[in-house]
Amino acid sequence: MFPPGSRSGYPTGTATWLAFGPPLMPTWKPSSRANKLLDHYRLRGRAYPTPRYWERLFQMLEEEAEKRGKTPPPPPLTYALDHDPTEEERTERLLEQVAWADRNSLLHRIQMFFESMPSSGWTRFEK
Predict the structure, then answer these.
(1) CA gap 64, 31 in Å, rounded
(2) DSSP class of residue 104?
(3) At 42, phi and psi to the nearest 5?
(4) What are the boundaries of each domain within the chain?
(5) Which helix (H) or strand (E) holds 61?
(6) Residues pairing with 123 in the sheet
(7) d(Cα 53, Cα 28) in Å, to the nearest integer?
């Protein structure tokens, strides 16, 4: 059953939002192009960018979102957390960012960014 005042299953109104919490972010399935892009780097042992490069990637995507009037991409898991994110959480966040870029016709920008990164700009998968 949906919360009161809800048409789509998401709470509406401030009182309802406070009672039921914020609406969940929709889960987006990445396209095959997005998966292939990440697989290319995963096969080379690269998990996600180091914080320095991840911040640059996020800034580039955020600027593109602002130019196009789109919602901003999910931020990297590098700050504002009460715990250190796991490798799985960071890998998932990178996938979310790539899926966001794909939905906003910016996958080519991520590909160019990744291609310009040095090998040292990547965090490797733990063995």
Answers:
(1) 20
(2) T
(3) -60, -40
(4) 30-124
(5) helix 51-68
(6) 48
(7) 24
Give which of 35, 50, 39 is closest to 124, Cα–Cα.
50
Q: CA separation (Å) from 28 to 18, 42, 56, 117, 123?
A: 25, 20, 23, 26, 24
Tokens of 26: 């929709």
pLDDT at 17: 35
Q: Which amino acid is at 62?
A: E
Are residues 71 and 28 in contact, defined by beta-carbon separation less than 8 angstroms? no
Mean pLDDT, consecutive 10-residue segments, the chain of 127 residues?
A: 42 43 54 92 94 95 93 81 83 93 94 96 86
Residue 12 has a CB neighbour count (10 Å cut-off) of 16
CA distances (Å), origin 97, targets 5, 9, 62, 118: 32, 25, 11, 20
Residue type for position 5: G
CA–CA separation, 101 and 26 (whole Å)? 15
Instruction: Output the pLDDT for position 81.
Output: 63
Judged by DSSP in three states, 39 sits in helix
Hey, is 32 helix, strand or coil? helix
- Please provide the distance, in angstroms rounded to a whole number, between the alpha carbons at the two ends of the chain: 45
